[in-house]
Automatic annotation (TrEMBL):
Stretches that traverse the bilayer: none
Domain of life: Eukaryota
Keywords: NADP, Oxidoreductase, Riboflavin biosynthesis
Classification via PANTHER family: 2,5-DIAMINO-6-RIBOSYLAMINO-4(3H)-PYRIMIDINONE 5'-PHOSPHATE REDUCTASE, DIHYDROFOLATE REDUCTASE FAMILY PROTEIN (AFU_ORTHOLOGUE AFUA_8G06820)
Annotated Bacterial bifunctional deaminase-reductase C-terminal domain residues: 38-259
Organism of origin: Pichia angusta (Yeast)
Protein name listed in UniProt: 2,5-diamino-6-ribosylamino-4(3H)-pyrimidinone 5'-phosphate reductase
Length: 267
């Protein structure tokens, strides 16, 4: 695969206030403790009409190479990269980081996390790009979040994961295909994951945009970074739109060769 073009220098100071920083000064309610979830960055590329693909299950190229490099730069700033099983099945993504974080030529090894309540991954993993990059030492095997009841009813899931070095994270879902996000994030933090970059797909994005901590009422998302490309994908496209009105705060805009990027926090 061709190497990424260099990162546009102006993106570094633009993105920095919205990225996790280990030595950052935090308020008491966001202090790093075992009881608090990791830093969550939600990021995706969309069309002008708020679509992230041309139709369900179809991989769609949206962003310019310039902002593709930005995506890998963002990955280099996080411990884990989270997607839903639908995105994995539709895109066959590598879920690794190709941004060179230092001068020794080493890539940052980010941990893939796949939300997969019924373990659909098993039928596709062996021939996937994700497995191949792990075998080539260019990426890590994933953590897969699966319903505890599914694991109990199918012991082969555990043996498959052991065979492929997959980390199995069993959780009880509140509904047939959903987990409590706060529980997912807290369990990931127990596995030394302090920052998570969430990339999709639409159901994951829409769900997280509307999610709040039940104790504090605060959004679970720490930063929102959206690339907007000058394209309409039409009414048959897969839409990103939360179920109710959502206003952003601390908004910053950046415009590149083709795309615009908005960074913000949630009110």
């Amino acid at each position: 695969m061709a190497s990424l073009p260099p990162l546009t220098e102006s993106l570094v100071p633009f993105l920095d206030p919205y990225l996790p920083q280990i030595n950052r000064t935090v308020s008491l309610d966001k202090a790093e403790t075992d009881e608090n979830p990791p830093f969550i960055t939600l990021t995706f590329a969309q069309s002008i009409d708020s679509r992230i693909s041309s139709s369900p299950g179809v991989r769609t190229s949206i962003s310019h190479l310039e902002t593709k490099t930005m995506t890998h730069y963002l990955r280099s700033k996080h411990d884990a990269l989270l997607v839903g099983i639908g995105t994995f099945l539709a895109d066959d993504p590598k879920l690794n980081c190709r941004f060179r974080v230092n001068h020794n030529g080493m890539d940052h090894l980010i941990r893939p996390v796949i939300i997969d309540p019924t373990f659909k991954l098993g039928s596709f993993y062996e021939g996937s790009k994700l497995r191949q990059v792990s075998l080539d030492s260019k990426g890590l095997p994933p953590i897969v979040v699966v319903k505890l009841s599914k694991i109990r009813s199918n012991p082969e899931i555990e043996s498959f994961c052991i065979q492929h070095d997959i980390v199995l994270l069993p959780l009880e879902g509140e509904l047939a295909s959903k987990f409590q996000w706060i529980e997912v994030f807290k369990e990931l933090k127990k596995r030394s994951i302090r920052s998570i970059m969430v990339e999709g797909g639409a159901s994951v994005i829409n769900s997280l945009l509307s999610s709040r901590d039940s104790r504090s009422g605060q959004p679970l998302i720490d930063s929102l970074i959206v690339t907007i490309s000058p394209i309409f994908l039409g009414k048959s496209g897969v839409e990103v739109s939360p179920c109710k009105e959502l206003r952003l705060s601390d908004v910053s805009w950046w415009t590149g060769v083709q795309d615009s990027v908005i960074c913000s926090h949630l009110n």
